Amino acid sequence: MARVVVDVMLKPEILDPQGKAVAQALPRLGFDGISGVRQGKRFELDVEGEVSEERLAQIRSAAETLLSNPVIEDFTVHVDDPR
Amino acid sequence: MARVVVDVMLKPEILDPQGKAVAQALPRLGFDGISGVRQGKRFELDVEGEVSEERLAQIRSAAETLLSNPVIEDFTVHVDDPR
Amino acid sequence: MARVVVDVMLKPEILDPQGKAVAQALPRLGFDGISGVRQGKRFELDVEGEVSEERLAQIRSAAETLLSNPVIEDFTVHVDDPR
Amino acid sequence: MARVVVDVMLKPEILDPQGKAVAQALPRLGFDGISGVRQGKRFELDVEGEVSEERLAQIRSAAETLLSNPVIEDFTVHVDDPR
Fold it and tell me: Residue B83 pLDDT > 70, yes or no?
């Protein structure tokens, strides 16, 4: 079984209050040197069988339809490297 | 400026209803062959200057304190490859 | 058509890093007097027809199965008052 | 101590893939009669002292700045009724 990862982030021009809260909180906890934080979603999909090009295209289509809102979010799809 | 990514996922033994909803919805939209979905959080941190080992250790500490709940979640930290 | 709301919050004993980040960030933005913040999920369900007791029981069951993880989260269900 | 709740939902005209996934998954699990689902965020704020009008105004300002993105989200603020 293979794993495919879909990362979904708000588009850069869309303000991200969640990330902003984290960025503001970091210095209060003693963490400096972080100039910005963005928070998004990560989906890990367990794929039966091989991850063919056709399968990846299907997952990209699912990412566009069900995992993200393309008006406000960008997504990337990649096969997870076994670590 | 460098970017460091912190991925936060529920531990494998913790039920993930959000991922389950996505997994259940996929076949209805014509996407087959996905046997499981997990939904987590992805944080992108913009780091000033170089990403030293010390800086990475600090970010791991922040991930443990502010970005995740170690009782129910696992996290990974990596420097983002420029794409 | 009626609307039923399902609120899902982490159980009080489960640390909530998202809420903590917000709580830490508030004073930096000049907001004082908030001693704690918890962040949860709110689902708004559009229900066809009348919201009978049977329908509410069904929604509670769905909340337990698909909208929350009862091991780490609590939920409440209520019919939304028209405002 | 009082509790103030801030509910944040995507504006009605913004597509909500998370809610859509839940709506698609419900029938597969045997739950019918739900014509739509929207997923948002719920923040519970513990407020020191009394919840004055001034305090509520401050929280509305925080909701606009740190808890929501007014371009894509609406929020409501209310004092939580003790249940």
Answer: no
Distance CA C17, CA B49 (A): 27
CA distance B8 to B77: 9
Does D34 reach chain A within 8 Å, measured CB to CB?
A: no
Chains touching chain C through at least 3 C-beta pairs below 8 angstroms are A, B, D
Determine the distance in angstroms separating the CA of B15 from the nearest CA of chain A, rounded to an integer: 14
In total, the C-beta contacts within 8 angstroms joining chain B to chain C are: 31
Interchain contact, D28 vs B28, CB within 8 Å: yes
Nearest Cα of chain A lies from the Cα of C55 at a distance, in angstroms, of 26
Q: What is the pLDDT of residue C30?
A: 87
Can you give the pTM of this predicted structure? 0.94
Angle, helix B17-28 to helix D17-28, in steps of 10 degrees: 70
CB < 8 Å to A59, chain B: 31, 34
> What are the strands, taking DSSP E only, across D12-67?
34-47
Question: Mind listing the pLDDT tens digit for each residue in B48-71?
Answer: 988 999 999 999 999 999 999 999
In which element (H, E) is residue B76 found? Answer: strand B73-79
Contact B61, A31 (CB under 8 A): yes
Predicted complex ipTM exceeds 0.85: yes
pLDDT tens digit string along D11-64?
A: 999 999 999 999 999 998 889 899 999 999 999 999 998 899 999 999 999 999
D38, two tokens: 């929207």
Is the CB of residue B22 less than 8 Å away from at least one CB of chain D?
yes
Asked if residues C40 and D41 have their Cβ atoms less than 8 Å apart, the reply is: yes
Q: By C-alpha distance, which of B30, D26, B31, C63 is closest to A6?
A: B31
Among B48-52, C41-45, C57-61, D8-12, the least confident range: B48-52
